[in-house]
Design a protein that fits this description.
3-stranded antiparallel β-sheet; about 10% strand; about 25% helix; alpha+beta; single chain
């Protein structure tokens, strides 16, 4: 399955696209619409990659997109809901045509989940890629309460990757808050040296 989006609670953003375009002849105008369904709370978790020994090495990230039954069901349902909306009589005037995943994708869960994986994309606000902060006894914790990376000296992660889950709104404000708090902690720790 070529899956391109969905991780929650760790790197938790997802989009199962259903692209439906419509062209209605109106005086000197055509109307085009792309319908995107975003899945906000995916059940699967990305794998914690082994720490690279050479900093220049590319990270080994396994996002596990659509790896749980729940994720596949939600992805299939999102396409069904989009198709249902577009099939409403109020939109008939615009002659909507489904391009992706296309009518050949079928209606069963497996076909729609496969289609969602083939056309899905990540959106702009992934979080949780450093998993989370926590005690060193927590196997998922990457940073401590002061955002210092476990096992590395003088390295911190001060961005949205320390969020354990994605916020329901835009990630900009929480990321600014993390940055402000992180900068304060860096200054505090520098005074203690």
């Amino acid at each position: 399955m070529n899956c391109t989006e969905t991780t929650w609670p760790k790197q938790r953003c997802s989009k199962a696209n259903t692209i439906i375009s419509s062209a209605a002849q109106a005086p000197r105008a055509a109307y085009w619409q792309t319908v995107s369904r975003r899945i906000r709370r995916i059940a699967c978790l990305s794998s914690k990659p082994a720490v690279a020994t050479i900093p220049a090495d590319a990270p080994a990230i396994q996002p596990n997109y659509l790896s749980t039954d729940e994720d596949r069901r939600v992805a299939a349902d999102s396409i069904r809901v989009t198709r249902n909306i577009v099939a409403q009589s109020a939109l008939k005037l615009f002659n909507p045509v489904e391009y992706l995943p296309g009518e050949s994708a079928g209606e069963d869960d497996a076909s729609l989940a496969k289609a969602a994986g083939e056309i899905g994309t990540t959106i702009f606000h992934p979080v949780g890629t450093a998993n989370k902060m926590g005690r060193d006894s927590d196997p998922l914790a990457v940073v401590d309460e002061r955002l210092r990376v476990y096992g590395l000296d003088r390295i911190r992660v001060i961005d949205a990757s320390v969020m354990p889950t994605i916020t329901s709104g835009n990630t900009n404000s929480p990321t600014i808050m993390i940055a402000e708090k992180g900068a304060t902690m860096v200054r505090e720790d520098a005074k203690m040296r």
